[in-house]
Backbone:
């Protein structure tokens, strides 16, 4: 009676999410008479034992999970091995769950929890997305100012574009104007991934090149547009300048495209597009109507968007709509299998002090409505507010819905742990969105529990993070050192600091202790695969040590050859095996800008052969926690805090003054990289001077 009264007083018994709905979903399948049971690719033992009506011990034993001293270990058919210390976090592959189900008299069917791709249909209200790309200082932002009538460049820090600028525009044509969403991209080579995102969203890409001649970035954007199969419209700017011939620029462009086609970088030589290249002057407005007419001509007969939103199922399962009659299913398979209501592409992620996490979205399918529930990556939430991407976040600018091709800024995300740029945001019913996000989090946790074997990919993972995925496959300079050798260089040069804080504990020590713990746990379970893996590792380490011993002997031999009359008893010259370490803390405003700065720091590492260690960082303003991290880092090395276009909170300023922490604010990316480059030069110079002084003492 008491239990019944508590259940009736429980307010969450009617909610579609929560523990009550979780148990109801798993137990209602017991009324099904047929033996079929629907399971995803990775099955939680916590759910499986409720459906099989058994206890944890029997279910773990049936699934082949080894439980020893609070540690649970299991493996799959592809050689992956997992380990965790909480039985609620045990996710076994479908093959093991099917064996356990067969043991209890059920027949398992593998079903995909991911929604199916929406059917492509013509939307008359869809507007095209036009991306302006090209080299720096070729007039992209000036062209956007002329088309929109806004003052953009004067409001940008350093009068240079450092992020994607979005504006709605009515393109002038010889007929009716064309309404579109215009994206302006940075022209520097550092922002190639940001350009790749914008080109991926484009229905037409305007490649702006100067009549004075093309640059390397012009080749890069052509390659990116061809990889994403985006129609291209060439625009020859600065045609009104003296001593500039448009035909010469057209011939040079044709030669570059033919050369790239011969090298296999693009699928065609773009001869028709080059013949239809439009000569304009963004400063005076000459040729804008011809440019708009050419864009409208390229859009004729195309279904918007050009790159349609397709949802991939990387697990190869049966669609849920094909087996919707069965009731016995796991908690993540509660949906009807219908496609999402709307699909949006996450273009940028920012963290503000007033509104929290803000996403910049471009709608790719359906209608985005305020108040809808969504799942993006592993995050679940509700759309609290939508605002035009080119306006500020104020109540007067709020919009209720967004159509295909429109760009909006959205609030409602609670955490940035499971969401990033390039993710797809799926608008779904509340129950389906919540259960899908929970399943994705479980699989993401499973990836962290893997201790051995090849990694597995997730269908919702970020797809545009690499240079190849963003349509750029031109190789840079080859790396001179192997990754393992680089890590050994760092270990040989840096002194082991005292472990006074878990935040500054060396990564090498963490990995070593983690490997020892994993090795002990794995050795307790007799496995031939583990022995083979250990043998390969020992063999590889032995070869690596022998190679380094030979290098040290050769360096000592060369030193003795230089100074054969060296006095005995003096210390030998220490071999130059280390690299200077530059530490810093970085905060930026956007994910795209943060990624670009990391790429710039990586280039500085290769240029000066140093190690730039990012102690702490992320998005949003400088908070007192960043100052605490920098204060601890200053005990080992100079560790300033870099704030790129983000404010510094008052509490953080007080902490910085008291603890004597250096905080540097930058609004232009080149200034920040120049400051880090100066630190690299000084570190390399100090190391060279110390080496010279050591040589003079010999």
Residues:
């Amino acid at each position: 009676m008491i239990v019944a009264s508590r259940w009736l007083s429980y307010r969450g018994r009617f909610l579609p999410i929560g523990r009550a709905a979780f148990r109801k979903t798993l137990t209602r399948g017991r009324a099904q008479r047929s033996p079929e049971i629907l399971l995803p690719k990775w099955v939680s033992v916590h759910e499986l034992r409720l459906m099989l009506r058994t206890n944890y011990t029997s279910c773990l034993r049936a699934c082949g999970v080894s439980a020893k001293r609070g540690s649970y270990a299991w493996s799959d058919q592809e050689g992956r091995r997992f380990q965790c210390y909480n039985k609620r976090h045990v996710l076994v592959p479908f093959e093991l769950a099917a064996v356990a189900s067969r043991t209890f008299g059920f027949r398992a069917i593998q079903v995909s929890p991911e929604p199916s791709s929406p059917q492509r249909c013509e939307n008359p209200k869809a507007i095209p997305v036009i991306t302006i790309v090209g080299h720096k200082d070729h007039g992209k932002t000036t062209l956007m100012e002329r088309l929109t009538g806004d003052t953009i460049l004067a409001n940008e820090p350093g009068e240079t574009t450092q992020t994607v600028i979005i504006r709605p525009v009515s393109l002038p044509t010889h007929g009716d104007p064309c309404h579109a969403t215009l994206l302006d991209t940075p022209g520097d080579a550092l922002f190639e991934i940001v350009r790749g995102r914008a080109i991926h969203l484009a229905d037409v890409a305007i490649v702006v090149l100067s009549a004075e001649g093309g640059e390397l970035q012009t080749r890069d954007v052509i390659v990116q547009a061809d990889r994403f199969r985006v129609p291209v419209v060439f625009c020859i700017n600065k045609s009104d300048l003296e001593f500039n011939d448009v035909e010469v620029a057209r011939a040079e462009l044709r030669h570059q495209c033919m050369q790239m086609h011969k090298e296999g970088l693009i699928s065609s030589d773009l001869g028709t597009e080059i013949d239809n290249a439009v000569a304009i002057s963004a400063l005076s407005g000459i040729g804008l109507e011809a440019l708009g007419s050419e864009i409208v001509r390229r859009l004729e007969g195309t279904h918007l968007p050009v790159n349609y939103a397709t949802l991939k199922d990387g697990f190869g399962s049966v669609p849920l709509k094909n087996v919707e009659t069965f009731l016995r299913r796991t908690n993540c398979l509660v949906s009807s299998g219908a496609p999402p209501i709307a699909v949006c592409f996450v273009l940028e992620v920012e963290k503000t002090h007033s509104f929290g996490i803000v996403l910049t979205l471009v709608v790719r399918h359906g209608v985005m409505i305020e108040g809808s529930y969504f799942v993006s990556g592993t995050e679940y939430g509700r759309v609290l507010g939508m605002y035009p991407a080119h306006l500020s976040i104020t109540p007067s600018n709020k919009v209720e819905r967004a159509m295909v091709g429109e760009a909006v800024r959205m609030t409602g995300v609670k955490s940035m742990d499971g969401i990033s740029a390039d993710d797809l945001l799926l608008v779904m019913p509340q129950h389906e969105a919540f259960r899908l996000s929970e399943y994705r989090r479980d699989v993401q946790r499973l990836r962290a529990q893997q201790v051995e074997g090849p990694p597995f990919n997730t269908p919702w993972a970020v797809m545009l993070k690499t240079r190849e995925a963003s349509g750029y496959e031109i190789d840079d300079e080859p790396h001179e050192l192997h990754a393992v050798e680089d890590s050994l260089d760092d270990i040989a040069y840096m002194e082991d600091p005292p472990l006074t804080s878990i935040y500054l504990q060396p990564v090498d020590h963490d990995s070593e202790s983690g490997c020892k713990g994993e090795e002990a746990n794995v050795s307790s379970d007799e496995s031939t695969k583990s022995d083979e893996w250990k043998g390969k590792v020992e063999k590889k380490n032995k070869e690596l040590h022998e190679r380094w011993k030979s290098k040290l002997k050769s360096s000592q031999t060369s030193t003795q050859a230089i100074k054969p009359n060296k006095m005995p008893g003096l210390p030998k010259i220490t071999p130059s095996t280390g690299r200077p370490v530059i530490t810093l803390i970085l905060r930026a405003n956007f994910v795209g800008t943060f990624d670009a700065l990391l790429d710039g720091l990586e280039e500085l590492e290769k240029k000066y052969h140093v190690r730039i260690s990012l102690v702490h960082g992320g998005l949003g303003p400088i908070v007192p926690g960043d100052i605490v991290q920098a204060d601890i880092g200053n005990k080992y090395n100079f560790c300033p805090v870099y704030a790129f276009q983000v404010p510094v909170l008052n509490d953080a300023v007080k902490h910085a003054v008291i603890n004597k922490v250096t905080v540097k604010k930058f609004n232009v990316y080149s200034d920040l990289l120049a400051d880090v480059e100066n630190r690299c030069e000084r570190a390399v110079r100090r190391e060279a001077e110390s080496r010279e002084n050591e040589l003079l003492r010999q």
